[in-house]
Design a protein that fits this description.
Largest sheet of chain B: 6 strands, mixed
Strand order of the largest sheet of chain B: 6-7-8-3-9-10
CATH superfamily of chain A: MetI-like
Helix content of chain B: 25-40%
Low-confidence stretches of chain A: 285-289
Distance between the termini of chain A: 47 Å
Order of helices and strands of chain B: EEEHEEHEHHHHHEHEHEEHH
Shape of chain A: flat
Strand content of chain B: 25-35%
Radius of gyration of chain B: 18 Å
CATH class of chain A: Mainly Alpha
Helix content of chain A: over 70%
Oligomer: heterodimer
CATH topology of the domain at 4-94 and 171-249 in chain B: Rossmann fold
Mean pLDDT of chain A: 91
Shape of chain B: globular
Order of helices and strands of chain A: HHHHHHHHHHHHH
Strand content of chain A: under 5%
CATH superfamily of the domain at 4-94 and 171-249 in chain B: P-loop containing nucleotide triphosphate hydrolases
CATH architecture of the domain at 4-94 and 171-249 in chain B: 3-Layer(aba) Sandwich
Chain lengths: ~290, ~250
Amino acid sequence: MTLTKSAHSRRQLFRKLKSDVMVGLTVLATALALVPLFLVLGYLVSKGATSVNWSFFTRMPAPVGQSGGGMANAIVGTFELVGLACALGVPIGVAAGIYLAENRGGALAQAIRFSADVMMGVPSIVVGIFCYATVVRPFGGFSTLAGAIALAVIMVPLVTRTAEEMILLVPHELREAALALGVPRWRTSLLIVARTAASGIATGVILAIARVAGETAPLLFTAFGNRFWSTSLLQPISSLTMQVYTYAISPFADWQRQAWAGALVLTAIVLALEIGVRWLTRGDAQVAR
Amino acid sequence: MADNKMSTRDLRAFFHKVEALHGVTLGFAGNRVTAIIGPSGCGKSTLVRCLNRMHEVVPGAACTGQVLLDGEDIYAPAIDPVQVRRRVGMVFQKPTPFPTMSIEDNVAAGLKLNGIAVSRAERDRMVEESLRRAALWDEVKDRLKRPGASLSGGQQQRLCVARALAVEPEVLLMDEPCSALDPISTARIEELLLELKENFTIIIVTHNMQQAARCSDFTAFLYAGDLIEFGETKQIFTTPARRETEDYITGRFG
């Protein structure tokens, strides 16, 4: 109370200075966090862009010693593996998510939720070994199907937990409104609650796709890789990640260049998916209101 | 009381082990508006939610006693709660249009969600009739394809009334339907009640005593889970028999 006017303004100046310093530090931290991202992208583009050309998408890998060739089979293989993994994993994940959201406190729900959380932390190579032991060995060899199952195992907990979270965001009143219309509970859950959460669930699915599209380890012992077209789900298949891995550790300069190109294309695919998610959820604030 | 559309006998409602209604016995006359008044937490909402078996939807909720609809106990083991809810519709406190649906789809939701297939013409007729009954048709007839959430709060609430009416219930429960609405929208809903009672039995929960006095035929006063007094609205508001009722309606407590 005895402070003079100038003491007041000095104190104010100090507070403002302190605020500016803190804001400055957070900006700096953000910039530092973004540096690796842009370095990776920039490096990828500078190394890979020159090797990304039409034949990279349309040609098969060239034999050792020959230049040229492409990764057509690996690109198709990535889409095939991820597509099949979605077909297997998304229905299971979404259904499990609905179950968790509908039976919040149940003992089984608790157990499923806990194991989903544990599963998310399991290193992906462990999933690969698991599928090698349970699918590849008993069923006679590496295959597209085994690779897709490994990817699906990784997807399921991700999709389950996002689906649950998104469904829980749906206002309780909507569920009651549907029930009060004489709609049975299962129809309410599917047609009102899950339907209202659909864009959020789709977001979770796309993020899970982006995650598994970049996986290498679980595919090494399951899909194995293939230098040719894979014509059956029971044959080994290539993927961009495995092809990049094989080429990157090879001693041939031409292969290494192609590895960069493959990494760039893979990153572009994942980035496109993430941007797609942003686009898909841009109207969500409106829905929530 | 032979002409009661619905009645309760010694209805007790529980949340886990806590008893929220202590044995309510009450009749609701057909084609009349019955208001349920009482201070917050007295069990008004719980009571109406027991009338269409919505109470049991809440985890840990249960009830005992009887609720009769046309003389039949809706809690009898053979009765499907889903069927009860089609005969006893409900409008909630907050307007709850389904956000993924257009105005007309909201109205037709009861049919669509139940997988009942009707012809396009039949559906359109039903949508129009329900919206007319809810006094909303003239305001929305040119934008039936717009999202239900694009309407104002008062219109959304009438949309919810239309949606409830479209399943052709016999009884309509309204749980504080005007508490989120402005006075003009409230007046519209109140007018609506008077029209609707021609065809439906209406039970309305309200905090607003003027509202109960204006638009109900009978009034039940609930306090702390007990039915204190029930009678014709005029009698309750002019010559209440119980001291608690008088204190409440004159604003001395609650």
